[in-house]
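Worked example 4.2. Below are the chains of a multi-component assembly; read each line carefully before continuing.
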Amino acid sequence: MQFSRYLPAFALRQALILTLAALILGLAANQLNPRGIAIAAAPTGAAAWDDSPTPGYPRPITLDQMQGLMQRRAALLIDARSREEYLDGHLPGALHIPFEGWFEQIDRVRALPHERWLVLYCSGGTCDLADLLAGELIREGFEKVAVYRGGIAEYRLANPLERGEEAGRE
Amino acid sequence: MNRIKFPRIAALLRLGLGALFICASLGKIMDPAGFALSIDNYRMLPEFLVALMAAVLPWLELLCGLALVFNCWTPGASLLIFAMNAIFIIAIASAMARGLDISCGCFSTSEASSRAGLARLVEDLFFLAAAGYLYLSSIASLQPPQR
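Applying the procedure described above to all two chains together yields the following structure tokens:
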């Protein structure tokens, strides 16, 4: 009794209609506003990738985003693990630049393209070789450096690995 | 619940609170991204709710402000303003309790705007009281007297 006296139906109805009107106006205005924000991730949102470089820090990248970049030939995969691990199985097409001893390949590193994303990975989980190598590449002046933190551990769950030497190498 | 005892004061509060909410809404409507950042700073909501709130809340403030200024649907509008202020108070108090040094996002989305602190909390408590008074007086004047 008391409740309905302090919250009469007409007040609640007005509040509800005002809220719905604000919802519709807000969502519509946001759609029309060139500076509007993304409310819900689009179905392809997981694969969406902002192509602008991120100088100074490596950008985390998901499996979907990485595969999207690979389809557009906009990325190079780089395996930062040891030679043994690389030979035992790596992401298809990945270059091998192990963090341990990367400087021995400095000429090759400097020849990497600046216009494509360098997507670094290691075993996954808590591995840090990819992040360490990312730091070195950034110091070398690369601005499109991404780290795929899922690494081998996530990738191999649904995708076959490639074994042996780098493609194009003996 | 009696009829309005101080109709002039109620009218003044109504116009003041309405104008205030209209002013507060405009900057955020122009800059939803900035407002989203302000909301996100409170670290209380998941990402999609932050975006939804940034898009919708300023419009709710605008509509309620207009309703109060034009004295149309004052019960519903003052009820919503009461609820919004209660949420703002919880948000600011929780930010203070967690030691967050963030901009309030109350009236403007810019970084230089005021901090979420005690002054804002007291201010919002005052608005809360004003909205509560407006609400009770408006439903009292619209309801048939009891018995």
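Take a moment to check your reading of the output against the notes. The longest strand of chain A covers residues 75-79. Chain A has seven helices and five strands.
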